[in-house]
Design brief:
This protein is of the alpha/beta class. It has a 6-stranded mixed sheet, sandwiched between helices. It has a 4-stranded antiparallel sheet with strand order 2-1-4-5, with helices on one face.
Amino acid sequence: MRSLPEADPGMPDIRSPFRYLWWNARRQARSLLAGIGFATLWWLVQALMPAVLGKGIEAVTAKDSGALLMWASILLGLGLLQAFTGIMRHRMAVYNWLAAAYRTVQVTTRQATRLGATLPKRLSTGEVVSVGNSDIAHIGSSMDILLRGTGAVVAIVTVTVILISTSLPLGLLVLFGVPLMAVAVGPLLRPLHRRQGRQRELTGELSTRAADIVAGLRVLRGIGGEQVFAERYRQESQRVRHAGVRVAGVESVLEGAQILLPGLLIAIVTGVGASFAVAGEIPTGQLVAFYLYAVFLIGPMRTLTEAADKLTKGHVAAGRVIRILAIDPEVTGGTASSEGGVLRDSYSGVTVQPGSLTAMAANAPEHAIAIADRLGRYAGGDVTFGASELATLPIDEVRSRILVAGNDARLFTGKLRDELDVRGDASDEQVCQALHAACAEDIVEALPDGLDARVTESGREFSGGQQQRLRLVRALLADPEVLILVEPTSAVDAHSEARIAERLAKARAGKTTLICTTSPLVLDRTDHVIYVEDGRVLAEGAHRHLLDNSPEYSATVTRGED
């Protein structure tokens, strides 16, 4: 089979679940039409078999060997054609399922990359994860069922025409019976849609709760909070279970209707056909054909009911995808360029001189983080980079030239070297230098495989201080034009902090670096210190000068101690 198609980079602004499903169908129109063609032919072959079998029985009754051989050959040909079309229908069904599902993965991943820091502010982790866990399967199934559903409609119409041409009452019975069954199933779809939506919301919330517990399990054990959070998780999981039971209640009725309603129609068609045969109005062969038609109709009619169910689930899943696609990034870029230079935040007054090691101490950590976000273009603000407004530069250029490294960054699963050297172009010497600057050699030496050791999810095998030092190594190896570090030593001991401060100054000598910290050990080794109070620059100068001349700065960095 061919490789799956790429998602359309120029995807239009889609704001409704139905339009998203329709957009998906248009993107794979050729494969979808091919699958519908095979599915339709597959159903039609099955629909013709009862008629051929009936003719064969009539040939047996008439003791016509030639006619029997002819109809047997036709039946064999139909069987071979059914086998071929069935194989191709299934292949195209799987292809369309995968194409729709993984196109959804592509567009949501592209959107997540486009949103960047905006995404975690607007949606929970569990809600995003649930799209990849289950919603893509429902969207894929909605494309898959279009093949068999369309073919089922054609098969029902074909059987109806054959029955009408043979017996008008039987044909009319099927013609009016099928729409009545569809109307009977209709009232179940609205509550099913509503309950499925509620279940998906609760499942997303539960996934978020699980992710939070796993991420903070070490802290929970330290404070003895495992039982409290386990009880909360149990309560939320019970709500999800009850919501699932309510969904299953409607689905069970729907499943029962798939058996009951076609069964009633079969019984009626068979009974009427038998009465015609007893009265001598139709031959025995046609009676057998009518019975086989009635049995055959179970398949396409159940497929129509299944289509209603899967399209409903696909509509709910598409709604969750739309919630992600409808989010706009908080910041956007332009097309201008900058030769670099002074980085300045006009609102706070923080100015970072090129080639200097600057520290920013704030009386409240959130103020320092807000300024760092503006300087890194993760939040809007009046920031200049050299002679250009930062907002006018392309986002990709800003990300490559200005790196904001905070403590919320994570280590990913993979080889440790790959996690540290994300670009893959650092030499062994550069890696060793970065490890030395971050005082992280002991971490690597303690691992059996060293830099080839495999990091587990979120680096759980490392302590908080070790993770912080490894994140610092990763930031140093990235070697950006401007490096902004947010509390890079808050989780390490004093001796390691002093060594990191000294080595960091040497590692970034001649390069633009801003360290957001209130640690005296770090502040004392920087070229320039900026003190921010309530989001505005209050004082600037050397660390010791500010200690002597700014009581506010002194109180912040010494925590009120002598």
